[in-house]
Amino acid sequence: MASNKVLLDVATAGASGDMFLSALIDLLGQDDALLPVAASLLIYDPSLRVRVTTPSSRERSGKQLDIVLDKGVQLTPKSLMEVLAAVSEELEMSETARNFAKKALNELLEAESRAHETPVDKLHLRELGSVDTILDIVGTAYLLEKAELLGKFKFAATKVAVGSGTIETDHGQVEVPVPAVAEILVAHDVPFHTGSAKTEVLTPTGAALLVTLADEYVESSEGFIAKKQGIGFGTRNLGGVTNSMKIILGEEAPRPEKPTEKPTRKPIEKPAEKAAKKPIEKTAPTPVKAAEARTEILEAWMDEDVIVIEATVDDIDGETAGSLYDVLVSEGLAYDVLMIPAFCRKNRPCYVVKVIAAKAGLKSVAEILIRHLGTPGVRYTTWQRLTAAKETVVCKLEIDGKEYMVRVKVSRGVDGSILNIRPESDDVIRVSQATGIPVRELKPRIALQGYAVTE
Questions:
Q1: Candidates 1.10.3470.10, 3.50.50.60, 3.10.20.300, 3.40.50.720; correct CATH number of 389-454?
Q2: How far apart, in whole angstroms, are the C-alpha atoms of residue 16 and residue 136?
Q3: Which secondary-structure segment (H or E) carries 183?
Q4: What letter does residue 91 receive in the DSSP assignment?
Q5: More confident position, 311 or 326
Q6: Residues of the chain with CATH 3.10.20.300
Q7: Handedness of CA 151, 153, 159, 161 (dihedral sign)
Q8: Of the spans 75-84, 116-125, 301-310, which averages the highest pLDDT?
Q9: How far apart are CA 195 and CA 205, in angstroms?
Q10: Could you report the per-residue pLDDT of 8-53, keeping only the tens digit for each?
Q11: Is the pLDDT of residue 259 over 50?
């Protein structure tokens, strides 16, 4: 019997953290879905910039991420766990999503530990120690939860492509799959094949996310009936191979009477069994300057369709109205919620509840309005929305010899000029509580600092 499930199609070009993110963004249909995660990481790397693009191949379209960060910012395994916990809390992720993120990061660190025969707390992570590791893992958990997939759907994955040949790393020239990936594949008995790409296509982070999500593995996507899908493109040019993965929502067609043969897998030689190779010494990467990142990555003015969902109610109290706003905004379902006082039939005072949301969120928002307000139905229309280019930067505010990091949202005109600067309210409150300076006095000081770092 057919059943609802999610298929991770990684048979062509493997998987990476940014491909998971871009596929989920495409599935959600919200280019700005990852912005809260990226903004929460600016405290740790102020140069971090994430831009969503829409590349196209011959027969498919999807999303791709362009990420700029300071590779000189290196986190230890302990720091990675601490940042993951802090960001998950700031994003108010559910316990299910937090546990998923912790499990994926532990999978990654333990694989590195086995590969290098070094305790986790002694690992020097190099590439995996940068902030984008947290972006990939927490971002995937956050987007899975936003798409309402965690804990509700069973995940299957195709036989995964790993690539072939060798790649250059900070440890020197390494065979594909790299040791950490090999450890993950072996530990979870993951079916794989080399595929057509002559380089690495399954990254350690991609492998950790894959095994944390997948409940089972199938030979291919053949026979899977797709209802909705998201396609995520990788940034590397693989020549004639399309560098993408798919996340497909649908159902599995009835299995044929003859059971499918178990995929054959080439044995992976563990790192300890390989001949020792002297690593090639490489100099540390040059950090990316924050100013260069700002000028290189700016979101364009966005023209998009949104839905406006309305209900008129005359029998709700203040607590109900306030909780509704919190539910819709904190869960990321609405761009804005308005409650407009009015008079309705029989001259009764009432509220017109108006919610602006992404088109993909219609049924979720409607269900919450009906459940919380008791209204039998809602009205909705489609509007077009044009939003200015925007970015989030971090300001360093010095007060009494101590530095405070404050995020600032900057809107720009089509000519690049600054239209508006607005400090992140949570950060302003945090600084106010630490210094005793009123929010009213802090906001203009932060805005001036924002102008200084963005001009």
A1: 3.10.20.300
A2: 9
A3: helix 179-188
A4: T
A5: 311
A6: 389-454
A7: negative
A8: 75-84
A9: 19
A10: 999 999 999 999 999 999 999 888 899 999 999 999 998 899 999 9
A11: no
Rounded CA separation 38/53 (Å)? 16
Residue 278 is encoded by which pair of tokens?
């002297």
Q: What is the CATH number of domain 308-378?
A: 3.30.70.1380
Q: In Å, what is the CA distance from 4 to each residue of 357, 363, 411, 435?
A: 26, 18, 42, 53
> Structure tokens of 370?
């009906």
In DSSP notation, 23-59 reads HHHHHHT-TTTTHHHHHHTTTT-TT-EEEEE--B-SS
Q: Which of 305, 293, 300 is nearest to 413 (CA)?
A: 300
Q: Is the CB of residue 210 less than 8 Å from the CB of residue 15?
A: yes
Structure-token match 């897998």, residue found: 265
Question: Which residues have C-beta within 8 Å of that of residue 97, sequence separation ≥ 6?
Answer: 88, 141, 142, 144, 145, 150
Q: Please name which of 209, 55, 57, 194 lies closest in space to residue 133, comparing C-alpha atoms.
A: 209
pTM above 0.90, yes or no: no
Residue 293 has pLDDT above 90, yes or no: no
Report how far residue 19's alpha carbon sits from residue 25's, in angstroms, rounded to the nearest whole number: 10
**pLDDT of residue 290 exceeding 70:** no
Reference 290, options 67, 453, 412, 129; nearest CA is: 453
Round to whole Å and give the CA distance between 15 and 231. Answer: 11
C-beta separation of 196 from 208 below 8 A: no
Contact call for residues 215 and 155 (beta carbons, < 8 A): yes
The distance from CA 39 to its chain's CA centroid, rounded to whole angstroms, is 11
* 407: confidence class by pLDDT, cuts 50, 70, 90: confident
For residue 442, pLDDT beyond 60 = yes
144, pLDDT greater than 90: yes
Count CB neighbours of 403 within 10 A: 8
pLDDT averaged over every residue in the chain? 83
pLDDT of residue 170: 67
Question: What's at 385, amino acid-wise?
Answer: R
Q: How far is CA 180 from CA 81, 116, 259, 350, in A?
A: 18, 8, 32, 60
Strand partners, 392: 409
Tokens at 245, concatenated = 């993965």
Separation of alpha carbons 97 and 93, rounded Å: 6
Q: Where are the alpha helices (DSSP H) in 32-165?
A: 35-40, 77-90, 95-116, 132-146
Which residue type sits at 139?
Answer: G
